[in-house]
Amino acid sequence: MAHKKGQGSSRNGRDSKPKYRGIKMYGGQEVKAGCIIVRQCGNKFYPGEGVGIGRDFTLFALRPGQVKFEGPKGRRRVAVYEAAAAEAAA
Questions:
Q1: Running DSSP on this structure, what letter comes out for residue 21?
Q2: Tell me: the pLDDT tens digits for 33-86?
Q3: pLDDT of residue 11 exceeding 80
Q4: Could you give the CA distance from residue 23 to residue 4 in angstroms, rounded to a whole number?
Q5: DSSP string, 34-85
Q6: Dist CA 14 CA 41 (whole Å)
Q7: In the 8-state DSSP scheme, what is residue 12?
Q8: What's the whole-model pTM score?
Q9: What are phi and psi of 65, to 5 degrees?
């Protein structure tokens, strides 16, 4: 009788849960206060005006308004502006 299981089957039975990261709200979309905008690993996006950051780097809206992605590629920011202010900024 074999002393080892074939094909390493006893070592492969684990897998981590998916983290569901990514952009949840895109530019121009309306958000409510507390709505998650981006779930990310590290700072790919930085919080701008009206946006807070969680301890796991999640960006969320601090107030209701319209999402806007700003800045150069190296230092991209996400901001939330009120609907009237968003039209004036554009």
A1: -
A2: 999 999 999 999 999 999 999 999 999 999 999 999 999 988 999 999 997 665
A3: no
A4: 46
A5: T-EEEE-SS-SSEE-TTEEE-TT--EEESSSEEEEEES-GGG-EEEEE-HHH
A6: 22
A7: -
A8: 0.78
A9: 160, -155
